[in-house]
Amino acid sequence: MGLTQARIAVDAMGGDYAPAEIVAGAIRAKEELDVEILLVGDPDQIRASVADTESLRRIEIIPAEGTIEMHEEPLSALRRKPKASINVAMSMVREGRADAVVSAGHSGAAMAAALLRMGRIKGIDRPAIGAVFPTVVSGKPVLVLDVGANVDCRPKFLEQFALMGSVYSEYAFGATNPRVGLLNIGEEPSKGNDLAVQVHQALSESTAINFVGNAEGRDVLSGNFDVIVCDGFVGNVLLKFAEAVGELAVNILKEELPRGILGKLGVLLLKGNLKRIKQRLDHAEHGGALLLGVNGVAVISHGSSNAPSIFNAIRLSKEAVDNGVIGHIQGQYQQVTASVTNGD
């Protein structure tokens, strides 16, 4: 674990409910987590978003000018707005003033800014967005990547995703020899499109990861895998469908359980259980997705993130910083490169 407080730069201006919900989540994180919070954005709007400005006393506000709007093309907007909150936040990591960035703003802009400001980890061709999914095994999540950064992928990209996911799963989740699966339409090596067949062969031959075979859609939440890799097109569809199913399940519980006297009594008796169910199903409890492959910790949250989502995104970024995930990924790629160079 880290010996000093993780310094988290939070893009206060990014998201549908910015800055109020972003600031509220950041304040809670400061109060409950061992972190230093740096709110990046318009100081006047940040202060005006809270009823009690005293709650901001222990949080540093970093001035920025403007934000990248959802309709804007990321790269051109980032160049036109060098002082936009996401640019300033990413620059802080590059300059060593922050250890991680959390943003619920334009996800394309966040990814582009991370690449421009932080750069890629040596050996990584494309960064991937890794989302944490709950499984039927309590306390055993699965990391799915990519869930949106790369719509079209080459086999080597998915090999890199598998290695990065394995490192993250080991050091952030404590998984021993993480089990890696390839999302596919069948268990057999010959199933799927050309990309899936090529990736299956490459992963089977890799000595750097513990590849255990294809994972069908029904296997994603089974708890039998620690990491599942796929291209960003399929991964994004999977992510949004899983979020919708989680919301549906939570809403059904809210609607059906309180019906009648016995139902209301049951809700009172099962209050703690229902809270834990919500924590496992509600995507807001997972905070966001990690951008793995850039030379720094970046968490991309939902555009509709509320205060609990931002709190959990900050918690996710703190765990990545405290467990030295970036350094471990860098070290793993150095080993792989050395092995190739030596002809092992």
UniProtKB/TrEMBL annotation:
It comes from the Bacteria. Its EC number is 2.3.1.274. Pathway: Lipid metabolism; phospholipid metabolism. Keywords: Acyltransferase, Cytoplasm, Lipid biosynthesis, Lipid metabolism, Phospholipid biosynthesis, Phospholipid metabolism, Transferase. InterPro entries: FA_synthesis (IPR003664), Phospholipid_synth_PlsX-like (IPR012281). The keyword Acyltransferase applies. It catalyses: a fatty acyl-[ACP] + phosphate = an acyl phosphate + holo-[ACP]. Pfam families: FA_synthesis. It is found in: Cytoplasm. The keyword Cell membrane does not apply. One of its GO terms (molecular function) is acyltransferase activity. It is an enzyme of class 2 (transferase). Belongs to the PlsX family. Homodimer. Probably interacts with PlsY. Catalyzes the reversible formation of acyl-phosphate (acyl-PO(4)) from acyl-[acyl-carrier-protein] (acyl-ACP). This enzyme utilizes acyl-ACP as fatty acyl donor, but not acyl-CoA. This is Phosphate acyltransferase.
